[in-house]
Design brief:
20 helices; eight-stranded mixed sheet; 18 strands; Rossmann fold; five-stranded mixed sheet; BirA Bifunctional Protein, domain 2
């Protein structure tokens, strides 16, 4: 019998590494939500025509890398190789433009390309991307680049390089395309086979060749910056000026082209020196003609995508290790104690405390060993005697200190202890914030505020009005009203 395993180019994301994915997804979600981007979810398969028309039939993605098949209705279907075309199709189909103004959208999910698997590159891979549709303002280009850098910096990444170029618009590209054909034609016997094939179909892609000999020849090729119209130059100069105003350093790279035909004007990549050959973590640019090309009204747009596999590989290399440890580990033995431990665990979880409940029913000694391995800060011990008396034993696993207290006092004890349970941890985003010393402005930077921590903010009386508390981003009036019931929940 054949041993079943994941196909080449796919991989299982196991519990031991899922914290990295959660860290990245939570960080991106909070930053993009704060910038008024709304999440959109599109199907993972579409009509093949969408990608042929959108990405371009002359691209490697469409010509060589797509997973395409005929369904039972004899329609050509393709697993999405990227996210932008599907988002634009949804934008047109559902008349998202009808509200007027700009649409700020973001997405995350799996993509599929038949490529040679290597570190940071899989045949099923994942992206987080955003699309800003409805404006051709250079400020939009600067905004999306700034958001990408914000996400990467929030994850603790430092050695990042922003490479930027302008690929112009229609007439600019036509003039430059002919200049490249004229330049590379005498070298047809020297450039690699893929580049020879691209010479007449898509000569800009020769500039992106990984072949060393072709790269050496391309180094002296004409620069697209010399073929830009006055409008294209003004747009690009303004984008660069805005990046400088935002203190975002960049490298001008006139050889930078993206692998998809829909790009116009700004093209950019954010790269890491720590990833070797697979240096690009984020790539994107402007695509002012794509909406019209797919059947919509002329609509300028700009966007980017972050490759999650590469980003997580980088986090692992830099030892940016998120923790998935529980705050508390609950051990119990005896019928009444086990039932009460389950109820107590539920109350603590509702109070935003991470709790792991031992379900083994084994001897306390074995449960204590599992508690030590869990990485929890405190072990909560409940036997039938404690259950009958309404008490609970606490054992602080690092110091070995123990104490017994009424169960009704447990929540207050955990939240007022000197241990790091009182320190906010936003899904292990680097740099924790101590609620005892945090200013209102610092609290506004938190991606979310749990109920117990919100109650502690009110009780600290450092913020005098409901308005001040609601200024802490992410807190609704309904949530604030619910905090008053928290103490009663924990003592029931």
């Amino acid at each position: 019998m054949t041993t079943l395993q994941a196909l080449r180019g796919t991989r299982d994301i196991l519990p031991t590494e899922i914290a990295y994915w959660q860290l990245v997804e939570t960080t991106a979600r909070e930053i993009l939500t704060r910038a008024s981007y709304q999440e959109i979810r599109t199907p993972i398969f579409e009509l093949t025509e969408l990608f042929q028309r959108g990405i371009g039939e002359a691209t490697d993605v469409v010509g060589k890398e797509m997973y395409t098949f005929c369904d039972r209705g004899d329609r050509s279907i393709t697993l999405r190789p990227e996210g932008t075309a599907g988002v634009v199709r949804a934008y047109i189909e559902h008349n998202l433009f009808a509200a007027g103004g700009v649409q700020r959208l973001w997405y995350t999910g799996p993509m599929f390309r038949y490529e040679r698997p290597q570190a940071g590159r899989q045949r099923q891979f994942h992206q987080i991307g955003l699309e800003l549709l409805g404006t051709d303002a250079p400020r939009a280009d600067a905004e999306v680049i700034a958001l990408a850098t914000d996400i990467l910096k929030a994850l603790g990444l430092k050695n990042l390089q922003l490479a930027i170029n302008s690929v112009g618009q229609g007439d600019d590209r036509d003039r430059y395309r002919q200049a490249l054909i004229d330049y590379f034609s005498p070298y047809q016997d020297e450039i690699d086979a893929d580049s020879r094939d691209r010479l007449t179909r898509n000569p800009l892609r020769i500039l992106d060749s990984k072949d060393e000999r072709t790269q050496a020849i391309a180094a002296n090729a004409p620069s697209i910056l010399d073929y830009l119209s006055d409008d294209s130059k003004r747009h690009f100069d303004r984008v660069c000026a805005l990046l400088e105003q935002l203190s975002i350093p960049y490298n001008l790279n006139p050889r930078l082209v993206r692998g998809l035909d829909y790009y116009t004007h700004t093209a950019f990549e954010i790269q890491s020196d720590d990833l070797g050959a697979q240096a690009t973590v984020c790539g994107g640019g402007r695509y002012d003609g794509l909406v019209e090309q797919l059947g919509g009204k002329p609509t300028p747009a700009v966007g980017w995508a972050i490759g999650l596999e590469r980003l997580i590989l980088l986090l692992q290399q830099l030892q940016q290790t998120p923790s998935n440890r529980p705050d508390c580990y609950v051990v119990s033995r005896g019928e009444h104690a086990e039932a009460q431990a389950l109820l107590l665990t539920q109350h603590l979880r509702q109070a935003n405390i991470a709790v792991e409940l031992d379900l083994s029913g084994s001897a306390f000694g074995k449960q204590f060993k599992r508690a030590a391995r869990s990485g929890a800060q405190v072990c909560l011990v409940l036997g039938d005697a404690e259950a009958a008396a309404g008490t609970i034993n606490l054992k602080w696993l690092e110091s070995g200190e123990q104490q017994t207290l009424p169960q009704s006092k447990l929540l207050d004890t955990l939240m007022n202890t000197d241990c790091s349970l009182m320190t906010y941890r936003s899904n292990d985003i680097p740099n924790t914030i101590d609620l005892n010393t945090a200013t209102l402005e610092e609290l506004k930077t938190l991606p979310k505020v749990g109920e117990v921590l919100g109650q502690r903010i009110i009780e600290s009386r450092r913020f005098n009005t409901v308005y001040d508390v609601m200024c802490v981003r992410g807190i609704s009036k309904k949530t604030i009203e619910g905090w008053g019931n928290l103490a009663r929940v924990s003592s029931n």
